[in-house]
Amino acid sequence: MKLTRILAGSAAALIAATGLVACNDSAEEDAATGADTSFDGPIRIGTTDANLREWDVFQDLAEEEGIDVEIVTFADYNTPNDALAQDQLDVNKFQHLQFLSNYNVGAGQDLEAFSATEIYPLALFWQDHDSLDGIEGERVAIPNDATNQGRAINVLVQAGLVTLREEGLLDPSPADIDTEASEVEVTPVDAAQATLAYNEGTPAVINNSFLERAGIDPNSAIFQDDPSTEQAEQYINVWVTTPELADNEELQQLAELWKDPAVEEAVLESSGGTAVPVDLTDEELADIQQRLEERAAE
After folding, report:
1. Which of 8, 23, 93, 283 has the lowest CB atom count within 10 Å?
2. Tens of pLDDT along 138-163?
3. Bridge partners of 206?
4. pLDDT tens digits, one per residue of 95-107
5. Highest-confidence range of 75-79, 170-174, 264-268, 273-277, by mean pLDDT?
6. pLDDT at 6 over 70
7. Which helix or strand (DSSP H or E) is residue 55 part of?
8. What is the predicted pLDDT for the residue at 79?
9. In the record, which residues are listed under signal peptide (predicted)?
């Protein structure tokens, strides 16, 4: 029998129904004295995609290592950080560095990234087309949320379809686009609506998480951004915890289990072959996070 279990439902209902509590007293005392924090109960991991096969593989590996974990799944992207900040979780894994940095600045929190996992390229799709040929003059749907809009615009910049008034912007907005010099017109839409635009024949930049549910083959993209560029480093996915637990040995061990070849193979499969593993030190992640938070605070 597995030592893990998945809790489902909306985030708000989940917290109220399960009565999640803060870390045990001995753990808090260890944190206060600077000692390595231990867990008397299961390590509570928050995520938004517990249905993906990699989590099953990960849980099996954790069980083999004798680590008791509890996967807590959330229905939205904002609540897992709140739950972590309120000691209702021990760690979460669902976000990239930019999302974390924006959250910390907006909420006045100090959550820390401590292990890089993977990066998912953001891609442009166009129904019944396999190249950019003929796209000039088209409207292109892009996600309108603060986390993905700038990246989507830069996808079009890298594709040579959009020109910015100022080169090199890491997080441009539609107002930064030189419309007269651009080959296409950008139409921001709710991220979930980008697939609808695609199905209506409109070229669309679509988040990886919406592709499977919309039945879109990730390999049918006509263009995607380059995950090795400086522009992409803010979109590296990470494990996140509180400053008190950032050096915890058990959490570090769990993060290493995510790098196991069996987990990486499952991640690659569930992403349609698009996920790119990232290997950065915690110090490198901290430097990127600091730069992003400084920029978000401007």
Report:
1. 283
2. 999 999 987 789 999 999 999 999 99
3. 123
4. 999 999 999 999 9
5. 264-268
6. no
7. helix 53-64
8. 95
9. 1-22
> What tens digit of pLDDT does each residue of 37-65 get?
578 899 999 999 999 999 999 999 999 99
CB proximity list for 128: less than 8 A, separation 6 or greater: 201
Structure tokens at 208: 């990886």
Tokens standing for residue 264: 């990486």
Angstrom distances, CA of residue 6 to CA of 12, 43, 78 = 16, 12, 19
Whether 6-119+237-297 and 123-225 share one fold: the answer is yes
Q: What is the distance between the terminal CA atoms of the chain, rounded to a whole angstrom?
A: 50
pLDDT greater at residue 12 or residue 103: 103
Question: Domain spanning 123-225: which superfamily?
Answer: Periplasmic binding protein-like II (3.40.190.10)
Q: Which fold has domain 6-119+237-297?
A: D-Maltodextrin-Binding Protein; domain 2 (3.40.190)
The continuous run of DSSP H or E covering 11 comes out as helix 11-18
Which bin fits 78, alpha (ψ -120 to 50), beta or left (φ > 0)?
alpha
**Look-up: residue for tokens 């974390």?**
100
CB burial string 200-229: b at 16+ within 10 A, e below: eebbbbbbbebbeeeebebeebbbbbebee
Residue 224 near residue 123 (C-beta atoms within 8 A): yes
What are the sequence ranges of the domains in the chain?
6-119+237-297, 123-225
